[in-house]
Amino acid sequence: MERTKILVTGGAGYIGSHATVELYNAGFLPVIVDNFSNSQESVLGGIEKILGVKVPFHNIDCNDEEALRAVFAEEGNLRGVIHFAAFKAVGESMVKPLEYYRNNVGSLLTLVSVMREFGVEALVFSSSCTVYGTPDQLPVTEQTPTKKANSPYGATKQMCEDILQDIAAVPGQTSRTILLRYFNPVGAHASAEIGELPLGVPQNLVPYVTQTAAGIREQLTINGDTYDTPDGTNIRDYVHVVDLAKAHVVAVQRLLDKKGETIETFNVGTGHGNSVLEVVQAFERATGVKLNYKIGPPRPGDVPAIYADVTKATAELGFKTSATLEEALASSWKWQQHLSQR
């Protein structure tokens, strides 16, 4: 039986590569678009090793409308899109706001225009819990008011959501969209063939943890210990990247089945939070490796604590995470060791 084609923008990235694997395992044919601005070509080899096949790939920038249009024309019969292609580092966005607005908002506008031209209706948009800003109450539900973003990165996600909501509000629209607001992806594929692959100094906690454990970094700096949390460090909802990838598969199928509303929003997380210190301790338990760390100043743009209420995703998508924090961190360590052996 012919596989249903799904375009995966940013498919060589961290979450995109895992979503590509899970899409293929679920019977779809993922088609990757990526320009390696925040990924490496070796990821395609990792995907091929896992699946035993090469998935279609196009090296283009999603802001390039002509190039994107050519992909849609060449592939033909694309049934849906998962849009991951965006810059994603909170700290970096504070010093490169223009680049973030141009890339993140611009690529969505280009993509939606080309989708409309080719009659592709289904879109899963990679959003973020950053749209909630600093929430007044925890956990956050999909009805929690969005507040002024703490960073340009968060602002771009809010803008993109607003654009998609405005499009969906036009009578007679045939487009169908699911906004997945996810929390903090961690971990790697069980094969250790793909995982989080930061270019340069890691912007996220777990790669810094694993690189410190491997001796690549001398010391882990924890950004602040005076937040209004039980141990003073930031609290986040850490979700295994494979669980997160599976949520995208469920979302795509829901769109193709034309279930639900024209546009829907779902939180994707575990439903509970862990502090940075708890992550450090969980990593040490999972791996037996002691970490050298110190406390540093807070990082601009960071909210003290945020974690998800996942009731809606469980009830309407039938989706729940399954991996524990220790399992996720153990897979991250296995991936780091694999990288060190290259």
Automatic annotation (TrEMBL):
InterPro entries membership? Epimerase_deHydtase, NAD(P)-bd_dom_sf, UDP_G4E
Which pathway does this chain act in? Carbohydrate metabolism; galactose metabolism
- Show where the NAD-dependent epimerase/dehydratase domain sits: 6-269
GO MF annotation: an example = UDP-glucose 4-epimerase activity
Q: CDD domains per the record? A: UDP_G4E_1_SDR_e
Query: Record keywords: DNA damage included?
Result: no
Q: Does the keyword NAD apply?
A: yes
- Subunit info? Homodimer.
User: Know the name of this protein?
Assistant: UDP-glucose 4-epimerase
- Recorded source organism is Hymenobacter gelipurpurascens
